[in-house]
Each structure stands twice: as C-alpha cells, then as structure tokens.
Amino acid sequence: MLVILKRVGIALFTIFVIVSFTFFLIRNTPGDVMQAWAMDLVTAYGMTYEDALAMVKSWYGYEAEKPVLEQYIAYITGLLKGNLGKSFIYKVSVNEVLVKALPWTVFVISTSLLLSFAIGVLLGMAMAWKRESFLDPLVTAYASFTGATPDYITALILLIIFAVNLRWFPLKGAYDATINPGFTWEFIKSVLKHAALPIAAYTFEHAAGWALAMKGSAVSVLGEDYIMAARARGLKESRIMIFYMGRNAILPLVTSLAISLGGMVGGSVLIETVFNYPGIGWFFGEALVKRDLGLMQGLFLFLASSIIFANLAADILYSLLDPRIKLEG
Amino acid sequence: MVETGVIADLRRFLYRSIYEPLRIIVRDKKALAGLIILLFFLLMATIGPEVIPLDMRTNFAERFKPPSREHPLGTDYGGRDVLAMIVHGSRDVLSVAFLAALFTSLIAISVGMTAGLKGGMTDMILNLATNAVLSVPSFPVMLILGSVFKVTNAVTFGLVLSIWSWGPLARAVRSQVLSLKEREFIEAARVMGLSTFHIVFRELLPNVMPYVAINFIDTMRAAIGASVGLMFLGLVPFSATNWGMMLNFAVRQAGAIYLPYAMCYVLSPMAAIMLLELGGVLFAHGLDAVLNPRLRS
After folding, report:
1. Which of A152, A153, B9, B18, CA to CA, is 20 to 30 A from B277?
2. What are phi and psi of B151, to 5 degrees?
3. Chain A residues lying within 8 Å of B281, measured CB to CB
C-alpha cells in the first residue's frame, strides 16, 4: 500500500514538473509569436500595430507587468480547478475543445490498442508454439518493415491507396456531416467508415511489436516446469497453449500497454492530421502550426497527465495480476 | 614472437576494430544489406550534392511532371527536379539526425554516469528527472519545442530532438555503471588510488560504449522519423529540400496526392525515409551481433 502511495506521489510530482516546464517555456517565448500574430491582424484588418498588439496580448492573457510568480500561482490555481486555459484561435476554453475532440481520439486509440494487442498476442503465441514455421520469418520481416516506417508514413500510404485512389474511405472528418448524429445505424456506419483508416494505421504499426514481445515471453514460459507437468498429465495441446502458455506469457506484456498507449497518443498528432480526423491530435497539430500557445499548453498537459496515469495504472494492475511481482519503490 | 611498435599497434587496431566487425557483418546477409543502404545514403549526402546540381527557381510550365529522362523522379509543384531535392535533402536529414543522436548520447551518458557513480541524493534527483522524461512521450515535447523555439539550423534542431530523448539510455547506462562499480577491476583501480577521471574515461566508458553505439543508430533512426514528422507538420521550416518539408508541400499545400501524374513527387520522400530507416534497422541488428558475441549463433 505504501509503495502504491509512493508511486502516486512520483506521478503527481512528474505532472508538477511538466506543468512548470511548459509554463516557463511558453511564458518566456511569446514575444515574437505575439508580434507575428499582431502583424497578421494588421494586414488582415488594417488596424494599427499598437492596437493589434494590445488585442493579441489580451487574448493571450499575457500580463507582462505582473510578476511571474503571481502568474504562475494563478495558472496553477486555475489548473487545480480543472481549468486548462484558453484557445486563442477558437476563442473558447481548452476544456470545450477537449469535450469535442476527446471522444474521437479515445474511440480510435482504444480500438487500435485492443486490436493490435489481440492480433499481436495471437501471432506471437502461434510463433512460439510452432517454431520453424513459415510465420516466423514473415512476422520478423513485417516487424522490420513497421520498425522502419514512421507511423505517419504508414498513414499516408493508407490514405493514398484507400481514400484517394480506391475511394473506399473518406478523406476527412469523423462522420458524414449530412447525417444527424444519433444512435442510428446510418450514423454508426459513417463513424466506423471514417475511423477505419486511422485505426488500421495504428494497428498495422503496433501489432508487430506485440507479436515479437509475446513470442519472446511465450518461449520462456514454454521452458517452465509446469508446462512439462501439464504435458505429462496428457492435457490437450490447445489447453496447454491457451491456458498454460498464453495466460502466463501475456502478463509481462501488460506493463507495455501504457508504453504503447503513449506511442499512439504521441503519434496521434500526425496520424489525425494526415486523415483530417478531428480528435485531440488534430487540434494539437493546429495549435502548434498556428502558434496557439494556450491550446497547445492545455492539450499537452492533458495528454501528458493521461499517459502518466496510464503508466501508473499499468504498474499497479500488473502487481495485482501477478502476485509474484512486488512493486519497487 | 609478439610484434611491437606503432605499425603492429595499427595492424592490431585495424584487425580488431575494422576487419573483424566487417567480417561478421558481411557474413550476415541482412546486416550487409543494411550497411550497403547506409553507405548509399552516406555517399548521397556527401558527394551527391556536388554531382547533381539543385536549381530551386520555379518554372511553372514544368510543374508536376511524371518521371522522364530529364527528371528521373519527376518535378514538384514549382517545376523543380525531385531527384535533386531528395539528394540535397539527404545531407540535411542525416546531419540533423547525427547531431540529435550525439546530443542525446552525451546527455544520457553524463546523467547515467553521474547517477550511477555518485549515488545518494544526486542519484535520487537524477532518477526523478529520468522518470519524468521517461513517462511523457518525447514526440509531443519535440513538437512543442519546435513550435516555441526558432529553429534555424541543424544544431538547434538537434537539441530540440534530444532534450526529451535521453531517458532510456541514461537509465541503461546508470544500471550498467551500478553493476560495473562492484566488479574487481574497478575496485582495484580505486585501491590503486587512480583518479575518478581515470576510472570514468579509461575503465567505465569503454565498457558502456558498445551499448551506446547500438543505441546511437536507433536514436538516429528515431531522430530521422521525428525530424521529418515535425517538418511534415509545417514546424521548423528551415530547409526547403528536407524530405519532411517536401512532404509537407506535396501533401498539405500543393495537394499532389490527388494528382495521379504527380505520384512520384509524393512517393519519393516517403520511399527515401523508409529505405534509410530500413538500412538503420538492419545494420543495428548486425552491430548487435558484433558487439554482443553471445548473440552470434
């Protein structure tokens, strides 16, 4: 119990470090960003440069005259109340953007995580069970390919083949705008069709890693005495494979789930941008390109904290699933 | 009879550091393929730009041309030769990746060594920092840094890519130092009263280097993927021929993915990235076998 508390403490401390890091990073640099923004306003609306700069400053909530410490405390208090900040381009709070974007990202990423995990575990089990089969070199080659291909390149290839040329899937959006959102078959079909390519991209990119990890884990489990004992008892092969090898081999992979999740969330910026899929990654990408520091900071903080908590949850879950493992402080 | 003198030293060095590793890599088909791919890109980045001239002037009459004898990979949205851009871009992509891997390794070795050697409070603080770096994925951090900092050259870009990437290597170096510290030869060096400087640079570093070397290639690969990704998104636009910049223009600005006859323009930078990364993956496997004799079958 004490160990878990310590882990939670470390996670909270890490989030605090991230919060401070982004605060001071962004607070120290908005100078030229604001000037560039003001110049845009000058050319767009023909206002004077001073007016434009004042307006931009008020949007940013940038109060250079206040001491930094005061701003920092105000920011932290805001965060503690659940206020992630404001977006300057959309003129709404980051929380509102999150509410709109989060369901899509959670849907696509959780589906991809489960799908790639399931495919990888099955492939890995098959590889470990039947060594020297055709599967092994095939999956190894597949793993080299995905290892060599950044996820956004995979996404681009899928986009070019299936959306641009074959036109099987749409080029952008999370659902067909002409359909009213609701619990209808038509709407669900549209959502699935729009999510198919992003899910395929993540799954294709991550399944090979699971397969290799599962194979390695399963091969070492096969050397255990209880497998031999099960064989000696004359248990059915399929039973040994699934309940003796599979169940035990899958355990060490649980901690990697959080790492894989982190990889997917990190990749979501480019993948959602490639597919024009309006999730958190897409908004984060827009914020970066348009230098929307408020949205950038808020979304980043949200992403970082969710991954830190996912890591924590995976560690605790692992120690609960496998009583042989004790959490280390 | 044992040969002595400079010539013999040189011969021994050549045998041990060049001939033997090469022999192991050449015997492994995959590693050889990786080596050839990497050498190909190295040549492309070093002498390629001298052989193939780059003309960045726009010539809209020649835009989006399919491959021809004059333009083996077609032309881009401004009528410029894609092959020349890929060749000139390779220098930029490789130097950024090299610098990123260099900075990452330097930070990781310093942090890992200090934590492992000093122990106590220093170790605890460095461990907390490493934990923080490890538990937040590096790509979003690079995106933020790339968006906030004005990246105008390969050195600053390399820094942006390495500030949040040193976690895994630092942790590995620390644990290696911790186990090496207990070994007899370090104990002996301490008892002999050799300086910490000597212990770090003559005793510990040579033992940690093999791991760092393999990691170097993996870090370079990650840096290639990340740097091109950052540029693809439109951040850090400091070089027009960088493959990520080419992709950004082709896909996000010129809409070349919708033009069947411009396909070669879109696919060229993608293929270049994939091939270069594949070379790295294959070569790293071979290097693993050279440096870890136990892996050799």
Report:
1. B18
2. -90, 115
3. 144, 147-148
